[in-house]
């Protein structure tokens, strides 16, 4: 669109010059076109609004429509560009917090508090002053076998790959992570220079394609892994089994988005779609997974090693727990991705009907770890539309220790949900490799918004925690949140998801009834 604007400018000035040569009064046309041209050039060179930067003059229409009144503004907040509904509260909070606008609203709640599924925090008469609460608490990740534990924020950047996202988007995210002292997950697309050169803490996500740590045939390469895993800014290693967008389906990067640089980073050939297998080749059983974990821990110098998984077949996760107990090899963390999560493009039926929803999945993983007496070794990280302080509290209440967000961070970058992530035509420069569109996203501006959004969201979570009389995330239990299960019935998470007894799944005679079928089916020797 910049080229079109420049063509418009050149054509307009040429026509005006020609008409002025014929009739000098035509020079008055400059009074009309001159301001438009100046506005367009201003749009091109300002750095705060990506749409205007990428679409001079034309991009202003979006902001004009938003400014007409509350009704039009709410349309942009409540719907995506195809008119599909989106949670107004969540998106408006992201925009307000990233831009440091007020997030207060008049006239009470805008939700139907008697509707099934309505949730709230059980505040305390003995609420704490916010001054007594750590505004940015840390959670230590690292089992007894980890020699380099990591102190993580309770809210971090979830997995989004360079390739799916632009270079400038990755730079902005990592700079934001550096500013806010939280971590940035690489996504399965590999470890790029843009994850490392800006100083933010990094979690290296290793998927089934083993990008940045593979040989020419696509198999895992220990040598390639070891030389990257020991880098100072790589704080943790995450083995990706599946993601919320398309669990059980390999990731795809269209060849249109594969540049020479991306191909080199991923250690793949250019000129064709990059397709990740749906399963790992470095191991095939839970016991072999334990060997792989030990190998990764050795190659990293003792850093935390974890997995990312969207829960599907329950017996397969229980099999991993059995393998940990049998080999006395511990995962330092488990990232649980809800089936409703995911920012990347995916087949619609995978998005809608594959993978356990986040709340049920986190409760299940927590109960399994408690049941096998593994919870003290392993932290739970959750991701799946976690974009507000209340979302964080809900996740902690169910059993998570900390949270990741992809969607929230993308909106903080300036994503308008144009739904063109897979077409290489993202108008905000977030999810494209088109250099003209990428140029519109200025990392120096957007990194501030990312850091501000994360800070304000954590602050909100801690304020909510203080209202419940709780000083630290570790103390958020299942009785903190209540939910309306129907018009007249209310239950806390503790009632909906009763906690098992510690160690109850180590022997068959005390396994909870609802778990027994899957426990009996699970074997450490097979998935």
Please give the domain count: 2
Would you identify the CATH H-level superfamily of the largest domain?
A: Aldolase class I
Instruction: Record the strand order, biggest sheet.
Output: 4-13-12-11-10-7-6-5
Regions with little confidence, pLDDT below 50 for 5+ residues: 68-86
**What is the structural class?**
alpha/beta
- Strand percentage lies at 5-15%
Average pLDDT confidence is 87
What is the global morphology? globular
How would you portray this structure in words?
This protein is an alpha/beta fold and 527 residues long. It has two domains: 77 residues, no CATH class; 350 residues, Aldolase class I (TIM Barrel), CATH 3.20.20. It is built from 20 helices and 15 strands. It has an eight-stranded parallel beta sheet with strand order 4-13-12-11-10-7-6-5. α1 packs antiparallel against α2, α7 crosses α18 and α9 packs across α11. The longest helix has 25 residues. The chain starts with a helix and ends in a 6-residue tail after the last helix. 46% of the residues are buried.
């Amino acid at each position: 669109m910049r080229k079109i604007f420049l063509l418009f400018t050149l054509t307009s000035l040429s026509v005006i010059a020609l008409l002025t040569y014929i009739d000098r009064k035509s020079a008055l046309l400059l009074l009309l076109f001159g301001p438009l041209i100046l506005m367009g050039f201003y749009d091109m060179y300002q750095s705060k609004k990506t749409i205007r930067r990428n679409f001079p003059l034309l991009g202003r229409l979006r902001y004009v429509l938003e400014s007409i009144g509350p009704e039009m503004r709410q349309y942009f907040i409540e719907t995506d560009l195809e008119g599909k509904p989106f949670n107004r509260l969540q998106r408006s909070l992201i925009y307000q917090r990233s831009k440091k606008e007020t997030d207060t609203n008049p006239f009470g709640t805008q939700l139907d508090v008697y509707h099934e599924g309505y949730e709230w925090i059980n505040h305390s008469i003995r609420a704490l002053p916010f001054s007594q609460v750590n505004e940015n608490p840390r959670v230590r990740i690292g089992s007894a076998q980890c020699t380099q534990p990591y102190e993580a924020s309770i809210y971090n950047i979830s997995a989004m790959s360079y390739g799916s996202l632009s270079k400038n988007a990755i730079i902005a995210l990592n700079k934001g992570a550096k500013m806010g002292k939280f971590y940035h997950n690489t996504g399965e697309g590999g470890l790029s220079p843009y994850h490392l050169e800006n100083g933010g803490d990094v979690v290296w996500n290793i998927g089934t394609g083993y990008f940045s740590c593979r040989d020419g045939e696509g198999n895992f390469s220990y040598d390639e892994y070891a030389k990257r895993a020991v880098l100072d800014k790589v704080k943790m290693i995450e083995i990706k089994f599946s993601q919320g967008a398309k669990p059980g389906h390999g990731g795809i990067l269209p060849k249109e988005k594969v540049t020479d640089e991306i191909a080199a980073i991923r250690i793949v050939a250019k000129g064709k779609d990059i397709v990740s297998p749906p399963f790992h080749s470095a191991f095939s059983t839970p016991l072999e997974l334990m060997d792989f974990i030990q190998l990764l821990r050795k190659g990293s110098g003792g850093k935390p090693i974890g997995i990312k998984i969207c829960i599907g077949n329950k017996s397969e996760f229980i099999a991993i727990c059995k393998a940990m107990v049998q080999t006395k090899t511990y995962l330092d963390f488990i990232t649980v991705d809800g089936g409703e999560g995911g920012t990347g493009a995916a087949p619609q039926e995978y998005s809608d009907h594959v993978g356990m929803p986040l709340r049920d999945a986190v409760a299940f993983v927590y109960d399994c770890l408690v049941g096998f007496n593994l919870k003290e070794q392993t932290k739970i990280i959750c991701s799946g539309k976690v974009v507000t302080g209340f979302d964080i509290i809900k996740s902690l209440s169910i059993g998570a220790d900390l949270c990741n967000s992809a969607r929230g961070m993308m909106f903080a970058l300036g994503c308008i949900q144009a739904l063109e992530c897979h077409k290489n035509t993202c108008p905000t420069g977030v999810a494209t490799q088109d250099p003209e569109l990428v140029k519109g996203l200025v990392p120096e501006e957007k990194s501030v918004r990312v850091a501000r959004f994360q800070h304000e969201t954590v602050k909100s979570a801690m304020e909510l925690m203080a209202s419940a009389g709780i000083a630290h995330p570790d103390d958020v239990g299942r009785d903190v949140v209540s939910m309306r299960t129907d018009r007249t019935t209310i239950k806390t998470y503790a009632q909906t998801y009763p906690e098992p007894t510690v160690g109850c799944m180590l022997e068959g005679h005390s396994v909870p009834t609802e778990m027994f079928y899957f426990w009996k089916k699970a074997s450490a020797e097979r998935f």
